[in-house]
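Researcher: I'd like a structural prediction for the single chain below. Treat it as a standalone chain; there are no partners to consider.
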Amino acid sequence: MEFTANAIAQFLGGTVEGNPDTKVNTVAKIEDGHEGALSFLANPKYAPYIYNTQSSIVLVNNDFVAESPIKATLVRVPNAYEAFAMLLQLYAQSKKQKSGIETPSHIDSSAKIGENLYLGAYAYISEKVTIGNNVKIYPHVYIGDNVKIGDNTIIYPNVTIYEDCIIGKECVLHAGSVVGADGFGFASGEDTNYKKIPQIGNVIIEDYVEIGANATIDRATMGSTILRKGVKIDDHVHIAHNVEVGENTVMAAQSGVAGSSKIGKNCMFGGQVGVGPHLKIANGVKAGAQAGIPSDIKQEGAIVLGSPASDISSQRRSMAVYKNLPELRSRLSDLEKIVEELKRKISEE
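Model: Treating it as a single chain, here is the predicted structure.
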């Protein structure tokens, strides 16, 4: 599909600076731009590229001030990154959509299937499954007994959804993710052998949730593991049994939340954040990459770093000291020598 700068500006509520009839038919990073491509500039770090980019149109923030002439046509918008995301969604929707039921695949006779299902080859739908309208299930997906899947949800190849789990509408489950595997529940007996605790709960994933590739969401021991509306989980994230993740919380790759912890709304976790078991994390908490959280965080909007995690201001002070440890050690050694010399002189008097 082809769009003019004027059409893009009208769609985004922006203004054109340059030729309104400039056309684009693809997208590209600003540093890799070429004729016919649309790019965006949101991070000031990439500002130098705008003066040499070969992209035909560039989205910029309203407050962007050019320091040199720019060849590309600009479309000014309040938020260039958000606007570019909207256009990418439009571009993705314009691509040909999968449809129909491929063979071989299996749909149990007791399953209830909505309209316009796409089912890829070798996918398996078990007993008493309920699937909404416009759902896309790619090849090699397994859906266990009694699973419910809402409208417009997309399930990519090799996803496994165990029995009794509930997936809301307009969710996306990326390749290899596992929903509803057993929680890590074992009891040690007198003979020191670990005995498995049956995990008889389920997983509830509410609407508009996205789960990254190879992420794992464990079923509850009893009750439900819950991902609330709008949660976004990156690749290789692990959510343990009976965890609850609040609305619109996002977690970057390789983060993990131990059993029965409750994460608030609108939290943001960087990569490899670890949350201990049975904890409560307040709404709006931000945890930097590799933060280790061993205790409750009660302050809403807190920003924590480090392991064990602490408030960002105290952690920065600690980091400043840590950076200077070699120098401090040398100074301490010198002071010890001075003290010993003073002791020697005093003893000789």
